[in-house]
Amino acid sequence: MVITKDTKIADVILKNHNLIPIISRFGIKFGFGDKSIKQICDSYDINADFFLEIVNAFNDKDYLPYRKLREMPLNLTVNYLLKSHYYYNKIKLPFIENLISQLEWKGEDAEKNKSVLKKFFSQYRKEVNEHIINEEKEIYPYILETEKNFLNRNNLNPEFTEKLKTKSITDYADTHEELNSALLDLKNIIIKYLNPPENREITEQVLTEIFRLEKDMADHTELEDKVIVPVAAEMEKELKKQL
Amino acid sequence: MTTNKVSFLILEKSYVIRSGLLKILGDFPETGKVYELEDSRFLFKVLSREQVDVLIVNAKLTVDLTDVLHKIRNKFDNLKLIIFVGTRRSEDNFPGFDLKISVDEPKTDIIEKLQKLIQKIKPPEKENLSEELSEREKDVVRQIALGKTNKEIGEVLFISTHTVITHRKNITRKLGIKTVSGLTVYAILNNLIKIDDAAQPA
Hints:
Chain A is mainly α.
């Protein structure tokens, strides 16, 4: 289904519950009644065109996405990415960590199982956090600076010109794969190798949350790889010609 | 892991039909990458550049493609060809094709045929049935969990770095665990090392 400005936001969520975290990332709260996307976006002061591109892209992989997003100001996408960083760091990862700490086993290996899983996940959190810090401190600012200077390319900022001489977007090492591998490993460990915990319900929740997080992060990475990085790389290329 | 997968290329103009084929292929755990092409412009290029095991072509396209298909058959020995026809009743023979499937065939028939073809391409290896680690591989996992580099592992176990890397690949394939942290967890859970000896997670 293609979502338009006139689609009721309640219908969007009823059709695809995977969009729940996306909507909350825009700050939209439940209880929308019969409001359309346009009405909701107006009342929350959200750019409706951008909102539509994001929900459509995440709703249907075949919705030729990203083309329109590439034409929009990059800070819209970057702001969205910052919000999902916050969501991972402050909401989802602590939530999963808490679930993991609730897992219980009987017998002599109980403590060992608990401790090894906890350590694995806290290490993973640490890596995610380092990745996020690097993006927020280095990559995103450079991308936004590139865009700003591109729009004002007759009058390049001298400081930026210096950066441009030595830096390149493609230099930023990509550690997404490593982070994704850790999630895959954790799934395999729980499904195949871990002694099954006593509280099955929590175990299922942990697994479900990991699958969701994986999907969410894959979408997140796509926005970086298919929108902000290539667009900024194009701009950078043009600007380098000017040097 | 990808070595156990079968990859497909669908050459079909219709989006609706491509989606249907994709859905069917997605039902097989053996299905790896599936490439889609709307027309034959890049057919040769994709076949040359990507590892494709099976090509699915709409019969309507084959008329214009006779020469190309001939070339493809000669060049890509192991490539299996499936022809996709409009109706089951068509008794036409399509020489050189490994399989014929039609749009009005019931799902179970198509699945059965594809299953046979997939097994021909990737016969379930005996080795795959047992995902148990060998004693040597367990040694390697133990060393990884202790935080050793490939070079150090080679020195401890008296094997070359190259052999260590091969073991690591096989371990990852068998266990489905890739990261050092993940392998460390595995090592601890399976009593290959004590939790206090693990180098990571710190």
